[in-house]
Amino acid sequence: MTASGEEGFADLLAPESPWVGWGYIAGKMSGVDDHNYPMFKEAARRMRIAGMNVLPANEIFHPGETVRGDLPHTTYMRHDLPVLLSCDYAVFLPGSLGSKGARIERYVAAATGIPCYRFVFTNGDHFKVLPLRGESELPQ
């Protein structure tokens, strides 16, 4: 735990850690340059360095480096929600509150008992993954 009592990078690999299984990374994509792929990639990179298995939303529909956004929002949601439902936890990136898709994913995760967390970038390769409080809380 960090000095403030919050779980942080040092706690991620503890045997009793909740980071067992697969995590879904959600966040705002629509209306963001490059569909926010750089933030998704950086968060996934840091989490993978820490030994976490994660499935960022941007890698699910388009596993390569191609940035797309030309399909209807419903197409992406129909593709992503089954993946979210197969994961053990969900992590929401900064800015998720402004995303229609992330709000839907948060609701679905909460409604199906999938633990939800918010990702916080810190210095270097470090980060924090903190629990979301309340059914509708998302990072701003």
Sequence-ordered SSE layout with sheet pairings:
Blueprint lengths: L21 E5 L10 H13 L3 E4 H5 L11 H14 L2 E4 L7 H12 L4 E6 L5 E5 L9
Parallel strand pairs: 1-2, 1-3, 3-4
Antiparallel strand pairs: 4-5
Question: Key terms for this structure?
Answer:
single chain; 140 residues; alpha/beta; Rossmann fold; five-stranded mixed β-sheet; 4 helices; 5 strands; disordered N terminus
Task: Tell me what you see in this structure.
The protein is of the alpha/beta class and 140 residues long. The chain has a single domain (9-131), classed as 3-Layer(aba) Sandwich (Rossmann fold), CATH 3.40.50. The protein is built from four helices and five strands. A five-stranded mixed beta sheet has the order 2-1-3-4-5, with helices on both faces. α1 (37-49) links the parallel β1 and β2 (53-56). α3 runs parallel beside α4 (100-111).
Task: Describe what is shown at a glance.
With 140 residues, the protein is α/β, with parallel strands linked by helices. The chain has helices at residues 37-49, 57-61, 73-86, 100-111; strands spanning 22-26, 53-56, 89-92, 116-121, 127-131. The radius of gyration is 14 Å and the shape is globular.
Mean residue pLDDT: 82
The coarse silhouette is globular
Radius of gyration: 14 Å
Walk across the major sheet and give the strand order.
2-1-3-4-5
The CATH architecture can be named as: 3-Layer(aba) Sandwich
How many individual helices?
Answer: 4
The percentage helix is: 25-40%
| Count of beta strands | 5
| Largest sheet properties | 5 strands, mixed
Unreliable sequence segments = 1-15
Q: What is the straight-line distance between the termini?
A: 23 Å
CATH topology name, in short, is Rossmann fold
What is the CATH top level name? Alpha Beta
* Global structural class: alpha/beta
Tell me the β content: 15-25%
String of helices and strands: EHEHHEHEE
Domain module count: 1
